[in-house]
Specification:
three-stranded antiparallel beta sheet, elongated
């Protein structure tokens, strides 16, 4: 035994799982060397492609860089080990499973690269929203494309493993009908998400109102839309239910129309009535970010002369509108105080007469 260790004959004479120690050493060395060479080649290639992609902004180059970014070192290491083991002598069953594992690892790496290329291509095709958010269509298309890639890989893996997928594919068709019936609500929300992505009634960052709720759209998902309400909580509503309602999108309002009015009592002299209209029109016209439309004494109400004034805010910001309206109200109060005119209050005069005596 000592002589075998000294002269090295044990390397070729011993039997480790049907292979000599020398064969195992060569396999391990080959796996390590192969992994190192491939890793260095990938690093070198990526280092040359990244500056080129930034300089020329070429779609093909960016796709190659995306594919290289999707390469996983642990997958390459496992693949190098499996390929090295395939050079050793094993039983037919072990060799069969090594081939299946090799196909699995190669296919998994290809799927990761293809999915990364798909995402990169879609990001270059689909434009982001004005608020910087990602459109809902990007998420749906990415999910659909990746689903197709993974299903194709699964079928190819089963075929390589010797499974007859003809009956399996046929059963998928029947099962798909059953699943569609069972998941019709989810599919309805999915198609509603597609409709939102194509028609774009609102996008992340828009302020919308629907039903009795309102808030800022945070995310349009595959099934639900998330809205941050004014009171602080997050609302989640299904896409189909949201589209079934009347949705007000205030973020796309280029200007805000404002109509307001007040009433002064009937004893007010006609000269003062005309002066109220003129002075109020001047107040509105002098306001910032405001386009004056009209102002009139509109009629005779139950409590006095009624006035109506209309203007447009050139900015849709709600806080700015409230500040502007408050400033106008304060000036109108000052004008009426200066003229000695008070706002009309609801009042009713009842005349009592004594009954006639016969």
């Amino acid at each position: 035994m000592d002589r075998m260790l000294t002269d090295g004959t044990w390397l070729t004479s011993d039997d480790w799982l049907g292979n000599t120690p020398l064969s195992w050493i060569c396999a391990i060395a080959g796996a390590v060397a192969g992994f190192a060479l491939v890793e260095l080649a990938l690093r070198f290639t990526r280092g040359r492609l990244v500056p080129r992609a930034r300089r020329f902004d070429n779609t093909a180059t960016r796709s190659l860089v995306a594919a290289l970014d999707a390469v996983r070192s642990w997958l390459l290491a496992l693949l190098a080990i499996v390929i090295a083991l395939d050079f050793l002598d094993f039983s037919a069953t072990a060799s069969y499973w090594l081939r299946v594992i090799t196909f699995l690892l190669v296919g998994l790496q290809l799927v990761l690269c293809i999915n990364r290329i798909i995402v990169t291509a879609l990001l270059r095709t689909v434009q982001p929203t004005a608020q910087g958010g990602v459109p809902v269509m990007l998420g749906i298309l990415t999910w659909a494309c990746q689903f197709v890639v993974w299903v194709t890989f699964l079928l190819a893996l089963l075929t390589n493993a010797g499974v007859n997928i003809t009956a399996f594919v046929a059963s998928l068709g029947l099962g798909g009908i059953a699943v569609a019936l069972a998941l019709q609500n989810i599919l309805g929300d999915l198609f509603a998400a597609v409709a939102i992505g194509l028609d774009k009634p609102f996008e992340p960052g828009d302020f919308i109102a629907f039903g009795t709720d309102s808030g800022t759209v945070l995310k349009v998902g595959v099934k639900t839309t998330r809205v941050a309400s004014l009171s602080g909580e997050e609302l989640a509503i299904s896409n189909s239910q949201l589209l079934a309602q009347l949705v007000h999108n205030y973020s796309r309002m280029p200007e805000r129309r404002v109509a307001f009015g007040f009433t002064v009592p009937y004893p007010t002299p006609r000269e003062q009535v005309r002066e109220i209209v003129r002075r109020t029109n001047e107040i509105i016209e002098s306001a910032d970010q405001v386009r004056f439309d009209r102002g009139h004494m509109t009629g005779f109400g139950a409590d006095g002369f009624t006035f109506e004034f209309v203007y447009y805010m050139l900015d849709s910001d709600y806080a700015l509108y409230r500040d502007t309206q408050q400033h106008m109200n304060e000036q109108i109060i000052d004008v009426l105080d200066e003229m000695g005119v008070h706002f009309a209050v609801p009042a009713r005069t009842v005349a009592l007469t004594e009954p006639q005596r016969h």
